[in-house]
Amino acid sequence: MTTSAQERRTRILEVVRGSGTIRVVELASRLGIPAVTIRRDVAALADEGKIERTHGSVSLPADTGSGAAAGGPGRVIGMLVPTVNNYFDEVVAGASEAATAAGARVILGIAPYETDSDQAQVDRLLESGVDGLLLTPNTAPGDGLAGGDWLGELPVPAVLVERRAAPASPAAQLDAVCSNHRHGVLLALRRLAELGHRSVLLAARGDTRTAHEVRAGYAAAVHHLGLTELPVIDVPNPGNAHSSGDDRDLAAQIAEAARAGARAVLVHNDQDAIQLPPLLRTHGLVVPQDMALISYDDVYAALSDPPLTAVAPPKRAVGAEALNLLLRRLDAGADLPVHQIELLPSLKIRASCGDPV
After folding, report:
1. Residue of 64 and 75 predicted with greater confidence
2. Are 255 and 285 in contact (CB under 8 A)?
3. pLDDT at 261 (0 to 100)
4. How confident is the model at residue 33 (pLDDT cuts 50, 70, 90)?
5. Delimiting residues of CATH 3.40.50.2300 domain(s) in the chain
6. Residue 69 forms beta bridges with which residues?
7. Which residues form the HTH deoR-type domain (predicted)?
C-alpha cells in the first residue's frame, strides 16, 4: 500500500519526538523508507520549521523542547464521534495525523447513535482540559442538529465535523467541515446515466446526516439528469436490530424493482451493499450484468466480489481540515471569520457498474 507524503512526515515527526536527535540514515532504516525519500520529507519539514537538520541528523527545533513542533503549541483536542470501526475511522485518522504534524494531540470520546450521550461525553472531554473540540454529535433525520442548544455555550472553540447546525440555532456560528454528499450522489447517478440507465433505485438508511443528504441528493440528481424518480427503499438502521434477514429483504425489494425494469441501484452504505451480490444471485440477478450497483461511503466497497464502484467522501481530508481549522481558530479567536467548509466526494470506478446498457 502506498504511503502518502503526509503519512510519512507524520511518522518522521513521531520518531524524532521520541528520539530527540536521530541520523537521517537511521531514520530511514527505522521507518523502512528509502533514504532519498526521507531526505526529501526531512527537507520539507525543515522548511516548515517543524524539525532542524544538522550534519546528517534531525531534531526538534530548540524552542519546542519535548512538546510541539512549530505552529502547534502542544494543544490537546477533544474529538467526539458517534462510532468507530467504519466511516469515522478515517475521519479520526485524518484529524490525528494533522494533530501530530502540528504538535497537538487528539483524545477521543464516543457517543453512540441513539444514546443521547453527546453532552455527557463532551463534559468528560472538557474535564480532561482540552483546548478545543471536534464534534460529530448525533442528529435527528433532517437538516441541522436537534436538541443542540448546549453547543452554543461551549467554553472552548469547537468545529462541527460532518454536521451542520440549523441556521437559527445557537450553534449556527460554529465552524464546520463537511462532505458534500449531495454532490456525491450526483456523481453516482451521472455515471449510471452515462451508461444508459434512465432510472436508478436508491436504497438508503435514514438515521444520520449522511443518510438524509443522500436521500435529498437523490431527489435533486434525478431531476437534474432527467431520470425517472423511483420510491426509495428503506434500509434498516444498524441500531434497530439489523439482521441477515434485513439484507435478504433488501435484495428481494431490489429484485422486485428489477422485474419492473430497474437495472441500477445506489446503496447507502457499504455494509449493506457488500451483502447484495450473492443475495441478488438467489433472485437470478448477477452484478453487474443484470443489476449495476454503486455503494456509498467506500469503506469496504473494494473488498466486495465483484469490487463495487463507490462514492468516496473525503473522510480523512475532512478530519485533517477540521483539525487545522480548529488550530487556526485557537490562534486567531474572533478575528477569524466563521468557516463552514464543504469538501467534494469522488467516485471510485470498479467492476460493479458494467458496460453501457
Report:
1. 75
2. yes
3. 95
4. confident
5. 76-179+315-343, 181-313+347-353
6. none
7. 5-60
Distance CA(187)–CA(29), nearest Å, equals 43
The listed CATH number (3.40.50.2300, 3.40.47.10, 1.20.140.160, 3.40.1110.10) that belongs to domain 181-313+347-353: 3.40.50.2300
Question: What's the pLDDT score for residue 49?
Answer: 84
Q: Which pTM was predicted? A: 0.78
Torsion from C-alpha of 180, 182, 186, 188, nearest 10 degrees:
80
Alpha carbon separation from 218 to 17, 141, 190, 201, 310 (Å, rounded): 48, 16, 11, 9, 15
Look up residue 228 and give its DSSP letter.
Answer: B
> What type of residue is 197?
H
CB 346 within 8 A of CB 331: no
Residue 62, SS3?
helix
Report the chain's terminal Cα–Cα distance, integer Å.
Answer: 34
343, three cell numbers: 469538501
Can you say how many angstroms the Cα of residue 218 is from the centroid of all Cα atoms in its chain? 20
Taking 50 as the threshold, does the pLDDT of residue 148 lie above it? yes
Cβ neighbours of residue 254 closer than 8 Å, sequence gap 6 or more? 201, 203, 233, 262, 265, 276, 280, 285, 291
Q: Which CATH number fits domain 5-64: 1.10.10.10, 3.40.190.10, 3.30.1330.60, 2.40.160.20?
A: 1.10.10.10
Q: What is the CATH number of domain 76-179+315-343?
A: 3.40.50.2300
Of all residues in the chain, what percent carry a pLDDT higher than 90? 60
- Residue 64, pLDDT above cutoff 50: no
Instruction: Identify the pLDDT of residue 315.
Output: 97
DSSP H or E run through 177 = strand 175-179
pLDDT above 50 (res 75): yes
Q: Which residues make Cβ contacts (< 8 Å) with residue 217, sequence separation at least 6? A: 181, 182, 183, 184, 185, 186
pLDDT at 70 over 50: no
C-alpha cell at 97: 495525523
